[in-house]
Specification:
The chain is of the alpha/beta class and 297 residues long. The chain has a single domain (39-88, 116-287), classed as 3-Layer(aba) Sandwich (UDP-N-acetylmuramoyl-L-alanine:D-glutamate ligase), CATH 3.40.1190.20. The chain is built from 9 helices and 13 strands. The chain has helices at residues 39-49, 64-76, 145-157, 169-175, 177-184, 194-201, 206-217, 255-268, 273-287; strands spanning 4-7, 11-18, 32-37, 55-61, 79-85, 91-99, 105-112, 132-136, 161-165, 188-193, 218-223, 229-233, 236-240. β12 (229-233) and β13 (236-240) form a beta hairpin. The longest helix is centred in the C-terminal third of the chain and has 15 residues, at 273-287. It is globular and about 55 Å long.
Length: 297
């Protein structure tokens, strides 16, 4: 297999770590940090840190955040097929991290897609044959859908492999399972978390959700955090346990992006699907030990 391409978002994340509930209409003091973000960009950085040179396909604004993100991604070792939009700003996302009394955390994301939605088919690079393409499904819900579908068609015609990250349970539910699955198509490996799989199938049991989705798209991994993941394909469904964390997680932001990177890295190296899911768990476990959606450095 030749190169790994990733199509999706470049964002500036505003990370807010809430110590308690929001005081609507008043103040809820909390630490705030700015960081590079975007699902596809985060996954690309994880792949670059692991020694590969992924190609990121995205669009940013002609503004300081766009300049900063391009410089940062290059410094990490990501090859850029990132075009610049003169009318839309670089995307941004407010990430509210809610820390529970049990030590676990949940994140609520408030994205503004900005220039990401202006990616068009004419902005795509020429794909090498037998490439591996990862699509962040956020692209399906914006003006970038035509570019995402065109990229998938080109990689299919070149004998490549497709992996799609399901993105967001709320956006999946709003678009409707029928539309989303028609965009994903066939002969695809779909990565979804438990909530995303339920939004697409109505199944609360992740093993059943993985099975239903695999029957439609080809293969599916449903991630369940510390409970591992369910892998389904034509051979059936199996459970792949997660790694046992030695310490309490520092931050869950970007764990799914890191999982995708581990899986892609393993597939690129010739691993089978079970080995790829295990590699995804290993990358995700590393991401939980640091703040933010990208590896340090």
């Amino acid at each position: 297999m030749s190169r790994i391409y990733l199509l999706g978002e470049v964002m500036t994340d505003v990370l807010v770590h809430l110590r308690g509930p929001l005081a609507v209409g008043s103040d809820a003091p909390a630490p705030v940090r700015f960081a590079g973000g975007g699902s596809a960009a985060n996954t690309a950085v994880w792949l670059a840190q692991a020694g590969l040179r992924p190609i990121l396909i995205a669009r940013v604004g002609d503004d300081p955040p766009g300049v900063n993100e391009r410089q940062t991604l290059r410094r990490h070792g990501v090859e850029l097929a990132v075009s610049v939009d003169s009318s839309e700003p670089t995307g941004a996302c407010v990430v509210l991290v809610h820390e529970g009394a049990d030590g676990n955390s949940e994140r609520t994301m408030i994205p503004s897609t900005g220039a990401n939605a202006a990616l068009r088919p004419e902005h795509l690079p020429a794909f090498e044959d037998e490439s591996l393409l990862y699509i962040s499904a956020y692209s399906f819900f914006t003006g970038a859908r035509a570019a995402a579908l065109s990229a998938m068609d080109q990689v299919r015609s070149g004998g490549g492999r497709l992996v799609v990250g399901a993105a967001s349970s709320a956006l999946l539910a709003a678009a409707g399972a029928g539309s989303v699955l028609s965009w994903v198509g066939h002969d695809v490996l779909l990565i979804a978390n438990r909530d995303e799989a339920e939004a697409l199938t109505g199944r609360t049991d992740p093993a059943s959700g993985a099975t239903d989705l695999a029957a439609t798209v080809g293969a599916c991994v449903v991630t369940c955090g510390a409970d591992g993941a369910y892998l389904a394909d034509a051979a059936g469904v199996s459970h792949v346990p997660a790694l046992v964390a030695a310490d309490a997680p520092v931050d869950t932001v970007g764990a799914g992006d890191a999982f995708a990177a581990g899986l892609l890295h393993a597939l690129h190296g010739g691993a089978d699907l079970t080995e790829a899911v295990q590699a995804g768990h290993a990358f995700a476990a590393r991401s939980l030990m640091a703040a933010g959606g990208r590896p340090a450095g």
